[in-house]
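Dear colleagues,

I hope this message finds you well. In preparation for our joint manuscript, I am sending the Nitric-oxide reductase large subunit (Massilia solisilvae) sequence together with its predicted structure, so that both groups work from identical material. I would be grateful if you could confirm receipt.
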Amino acid sequence: MHATRKLWTWLAIICVASFAALLWVGKEIYLKAPPIPQQVTSTKGDVLYTAEQVTLGQQAWLSAGGQQLGTVWGHGSYVAPDWSADWLHREALALQDLFAQRNYKTSYANLSAEQRGQIDALVKQELRTNTYDEKTKTLALSDIRAEAVRQVAEHYAGLFGTDPKLDKLREQYAMNAGSLPEASERQALTGFFFWSSWATAADRPGETGLSYTSNWPMEPLVGNSPSAGTGIWSIASIILMIGAIAAMILYHSSHKEEDDPIPPKADPLVSVKATPSMKATKKYFFVVIGLILAQVGFGAITAHYSVEGHSFFGFPLADILPYTVSRTIHTSFAVLWIATAWLATGLYIAPIIGGREPKFQKLGVDVLFYALLFIVVGSTVCGWLGSIEHKGNEFSFWLGSQGLEFTSMGRIWQYLLFVGLLFWAFLLGRGLWPALTKASESRGLIMMVFLSACCIGAFYATSLAWGRTTHYSMIEYWRWWLVHLWVEGFFEVFATAVIALLFSRLGLIRAATANSAIVLETIVFLFGGILGTLHHLYWTGTPTSVIAIGGMFSALEVVPLSMIGFEAYRNYERSKAAPWVQSYKWSILCFIAVGFWNMVGAGLLGFSINTPISLYYVQGLNLTAAHGHAALFGVYGMLGIGLMLFCLRGLTSRLAWSDALLKQMFWLLNIGLAMMVFMALVPAGIYQAAASITKGMWYARSPEVIHSAFMENMVWLRVPGDIVFAIGALFLAVFALRLLRGGAPKEATVAATEPVEGTKA
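The corresponding C-alpha cells are as follows:
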C-alpha cells in the first residue's frame, strides 16, 4: 500500500509538471505565432489584404470543408493539395517569370542556366526576406511580388468558384464547383492562403534561413530544407528512446512479476444479475455496431473519391454527398462509435463494481443515450446541410461543420456533448461511489477508472477553447489537446484500468498487483504522452522549442509500447486459465489484438513518422494515414469491440451467442486492416515521401503524383482489404441481429435497489 501511495504521488507530480509545461508552450506559441498584418501592401501603396480579410479567409476555408479539403501546414486530408505549400510553389514560379521578363524580356523557360541561377537567387531573396513592420503592423511587398500574389490569387478564386477551365483540376482535388459562392469570401480565402504561405518562407525576426514554420514545407525554390535543430533533435530522440527501452527491459527483468492467482472453478460473474441501468446500456452497443457499418461505408466512398473525384463508379454522388462531407462523417463516426462503446462499458460495470443500483440510474442512462443520439444525428445532418447549401461561416461554426479534422461538429453540438460527458462521469461516479468509499484491494483501480472518466469529461472543454477568429496556430494547439490527450490519453487510461478491473473481478489477476501496475503504466504513458502532444505542432507556426520538447517526449511514448508483447502473451495465457474463461475468449483476443496494433500501428508506424526529420517530409502524406488507420481502429477500435463483447455477454441470452460469427468477425477485421495498411497505404506513403524528399511537398501532393498510375493502383489495391474488413463488420452486424432475436437472459430481473449478487467491492 505504501509503494502504491508513492506511485500515486509521482503520478500527480508528473501530471502537474507536464501540463504546466504544455501550458507554458501554449503561451509561447501565442506570443511567437506568425503575425497577421493589419495590412498587406505593395510598394505603390495598394492594399492587397487586411487582417480582417485573412481571418475571414480562414473561416471561409473551414466552412468550405477546411481540413477535409486539403491541408494547411500539413494538417487535414490527402487528396487536395496542402494549400500553403501549393501557394508557395505557384508564387515562386510566378516570380521566376516576372523577374525573367523584367531582367531579360523573356520567359524563365528560355533563360540560360546562368541566367536562371540569377533569377532563382532573386526569387529566394524575395520570398525569404521578412518585410513585416512590427510597429505599423504592415507587411510591405515589392511591386513585382504583389503582381505575383495577384496572379496566384486569381487561380484560387477561380478554383473555389466556377471557372470552367479548372473543372479537371477540381475533379482531381475531389472538390465541387462553387465551394465558395461569394466573391468576397473567395478574395478573403486567397488572403488566408497567402498569409499561411508567407509564414512558411519568411525568416523569423532575428533569424536567417529559418521561417515561422521551421522551413516546412520542403521547397527547393525558396531554400526551405530541414533546420539543424530538426536533425539534431531527431537523433537525440532516437538515442533517448533506445536508452529508455533498455532501462524498461532492465527494470522488467529485475522485477519478477507475481504469478497470476489460481482462477476460480467457475465464472465469478455468471451469477451477476443485470440491473435496469445495466440492461439499458444494451441499446448503446447496437448503435455502436450501426455506426461501425456507417463508418465503413463512408470510408469506402471517401477512398473512391481519390480516383473519381466527383463520382462513385460513374454515379455523380458528389452532387449530394461531397468528398468533404463523406470524409467528415467517416472520421467523426470513428471517434463517436469508439467513445460510445467505452462510455457504455463504464455505465455497465458501475453497478457491478459499486455493488448496488443507484436510484434513478436507469433513467439517467436512458436520458444520456437519447441525448447522445440527438447530438450524433443533429450534428451530422446540419454538417451535411451546411456544406450542400453553402450556409456560410456562421452556420458552419455554430451548427454545421467547423472543418477541423476529428473535431468537426458545430459549437452548439460541442456544448451539448460536453454537458453529456460530464453527465456520464456523474452517472459513473454515483455507481462506483460505494466501492470508492470502502477500503478494498481494488479501490486503486476503481479510483483510476473514476479519475480518467472525470478527465474525459473535463478535457473535452478544450474543444471550446477556440473561436471563429482565433489564430490558426492556436486552433491547432487546442485541437490537439483534445484529439491527442482526450482520445490517445485519458480514454486509453480509462480502458486499461477497466480491463484490469474486469480481469481482477474474474480472478485472473491479483487486484493488489493490478493496482500498482496500472498506476505505474499510467505514469510511464502520460510522462511521454502529455508533452508528446507537441509532435503534432512542429510546423504550425510554433517556436523551435516545440521541436525539441515534442521530439524527445514523443519518443518516450514508444517506450511502454515496446513491452506490449509481454502483456499480450500474458493475456493469451489467461484466456486458457480455466475452461469457463472461454466464455470471454473473443473479448480477450480483442485485447490481445490491441497489444499487436499498439506495437505495430502506434509504435512502429507512429514512430516512423513522429521524429521531426521524418515528419518534415511526410506530414500530410499517406504514411500518416497508415499510422492513423492502424492505431485508431487497431488499438482503440478493437478495444471498444472487446469491451462491448464483454458487456453483451452479460446482457443477452447465452443461447444466442455465436462464437463462430465472432471468429469470422475477429479475423476478417484484423486481416482486412492489415491488408489495407500494408498493401496500399504504406507503399503509397513511401512513394509520396520519395516525391517530397526529391522535389518538395507541393509535388508529393500534386495531381501528377496523387493521380499517377502507381497511386491510383494503390487505391484499387485497397479494395481487397476493404472488402475483407467490410465482411468482418457484416459478421459483427449478423451477430448483433442474432442477439436481438435471442432475447434477454432469464436471470436479468433484479430490482433497481437490490444489491448485485457476487459483486462485493
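For the figure legend, we might mention the following. Residues 659-695 form the longest helix (37 residues). The radius of gyration is 27 Å.

With kind regards,
E.M.
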